[in-house]
Structure to design on (461 residues):
């Protein structure tokens, strides 16, 4: 049998599980995880026990021993699943020590850290894979397939509206994400997925951004309006937790308790801060206009206190329009539910061709986290026999950079009230590899023209 690929993982919180579990269960013939690293000793001990249950023994390293881990364990690849603002440091150190990197999104949180990664990648020649699981969700890949096929011609604009609900959306206001220094705000932390989807769907590059962002809902005034007069600074032990619809009861959920509550003594990380406290600086209501190199434009919004979770995206092309609605299941990260599972009855795609009747498309199906994207992504990461991908879904540091830069520019626009040019803030980054898309003013296929003719004749009075 050929040698297994060796992995180590840094950051062993909620999201880490998808990776170590998949390596130890689905890809154990090809891959092995040999060590984990975190700044929280308690969480590492829990993960050690989790891995032992799968028959895997890993070494544990404190964050200060990252270099020692690399020297002793000699991994091929470092998986980075720490909080966002620490990604750049681990990515760069791993590259400098001769390892490839797989990192969770967002690749990093600001343009300076981004430049550091771009430089380190160039010097090392090693790979940085950014795991954009949303590209892999079958209904999203299907949209790419449709756009590539030219069914609506050349895409000139996109309307994209993402809704985070009062369960998952609220969760960003409880944890480290609530401070921009940690997450870049939702424009970077969350919208990196969405901006990446649009860059990839259109095979395009963002050029300028104008945005307005506010925190309208997660405020002390909302607590008062809900009759919560005694809100504390966290849910655990809060006098109002019995009547607060946002209370996160970690003690009552085994997964959240053992991962977070039981390990607070090690680093003071509280997973359940009050969503209404004034002690945060991220927005919950954001509107963004983006201009792309091709001439296409996008109007995008993100709301983090919606009654349902999912999105509506519309593509306007020179031959028609595609409308896609997607609803996702309710969860908070680490609560044991599958994150972002597709709600099939709430998901549909409709094509409206010019001059012909609209029709609904049978959706490509998949199960698992993030609309069925997680398992497909994992195969791409860990299966050396994964087939060639005509959609080019594997993303590297270039897509990582272009996906965060729209959000970083939006954050700047929130403050200045001005349009921000991407070339003013992003260091030179080569274009990502994208599939070829329909060109403007390509001749319309003769069978399509014939169909229009037939339809018009049939409907003549
Ligand atoms: N692609 C997705 O759909 C998706 C979903 C959830 C989270 N994520 C990403 O995964 C990453 C982890 O998120 P999470 O929800 O698991 O967070 P988490 O808070 O549950 O876990 C983060 C872990 O990193 C550790 N950590 C923090 N700072 C560290 C440091 N300096 N050195 C070493 N360890 C450190 C913490 O102790 C914790 O164990 C984030 O980048 C997040 O954006 C992606």
């Amino acid at each position: 049998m050929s040698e297994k690929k060796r992995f180590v993982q840094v950051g062993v919180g909620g999201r880490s599980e998808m990776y170590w579990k998949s390596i130890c269960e689905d890809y154990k013939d090809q891959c092995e995880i040999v060590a984990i690293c975190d700044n929280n000793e308690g969480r590492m001990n829990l993960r050690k026990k989790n891995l032992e249950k799968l028959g895997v023994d890993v070494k544990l390293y404190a964050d200060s021993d990252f270099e020692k881990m690399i020297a002793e364990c000699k991994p091929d690849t470092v998986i980075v699943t720490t909080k966002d603002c620490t990604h750049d440091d681990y990515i760069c150190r791993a590259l400098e020590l001769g390892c490839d990197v797989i990192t969770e999104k967002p690749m990093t949180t600001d343009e300076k850290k981004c430049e550091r990664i771009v430089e380190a990648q160039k010097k090392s020649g090693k790979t940085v894979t950014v795991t954009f699981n949303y590209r892999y969700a079958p209904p999203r890949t299907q949209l790419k397939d449709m756009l590539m096929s030219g069914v609506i011609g050349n895409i000139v604009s996109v309307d994209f509206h993402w809704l985070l609900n009062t369960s998952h959306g609220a969760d960003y206001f409880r944890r480290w994400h609530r401070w921009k220094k940690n997450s870049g705000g939702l424009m970077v932390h969350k919208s990196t997925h969405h901006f990446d989807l649009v860059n990839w769907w259109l095979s395009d590059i963002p050029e300028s951004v104008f945005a307005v962002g506010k925190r309208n809902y997660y405020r002390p005034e909302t607590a008062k309006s809900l009759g919560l007069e005694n809100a504390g600074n966290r849910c655990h032990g809060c006098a109002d937790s019995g009547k607060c619809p946002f209370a996160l009861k970690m003690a009552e959920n085994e997964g959240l308790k053992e991962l977070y509550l039981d390990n607070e003594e090690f680093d003071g990380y509280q997973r359940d801060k009050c969503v209404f406290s004034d002690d945060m600086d991220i927005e919950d209501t954001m509107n963004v206009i983006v201009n792309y190199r091709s001439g296409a434009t996008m109007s995008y919004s993100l709301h983090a206190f919606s009654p349902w979770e999912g999105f509506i995206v519309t593509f306007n092309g020179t031959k028609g329009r595609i409308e896609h609605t997607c609803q996702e299941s309710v969860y908070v990260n680490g609560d044991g539910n599958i994150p972002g599972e597709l709600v099939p009855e709430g998901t549909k795609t409709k094509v409206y061709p010019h001059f012909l009747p609209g029709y609904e498309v049978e959706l490509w199906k998949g199960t698992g986290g993030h609309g069925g994207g997680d398992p497909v992504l994992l195969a791409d990461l860990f299966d050396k026999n994964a087939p060639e991908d005509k959609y080019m879904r594997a993303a590297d540091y270039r897509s990582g950079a272009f996906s965060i830069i729209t959000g970083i520019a939006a954050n700047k626009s929130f403050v200045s009230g001005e349009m921000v040019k991407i070339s003013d803030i992003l260091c030179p980054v080569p274009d990502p590899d994208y599939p070829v898309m329909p060109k403007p003013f390509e001749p319309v296929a003769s069978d399509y023209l014939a169909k229009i003719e037939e339809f018009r004749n049939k409907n003549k009075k």
Observations:
- The pocket of nicotinamide-adenine-dinucleotide is lined by residues 10-16, 38-40, 43, 63, 81-84, 86, 104-105, 133, 189, 333-334, 370 (CB under 6 Å).
- The two ends are 72 Å apart (CA to CA).
- The longest helix spans residues 397-416.
- The longest strand covers residues 155-165.
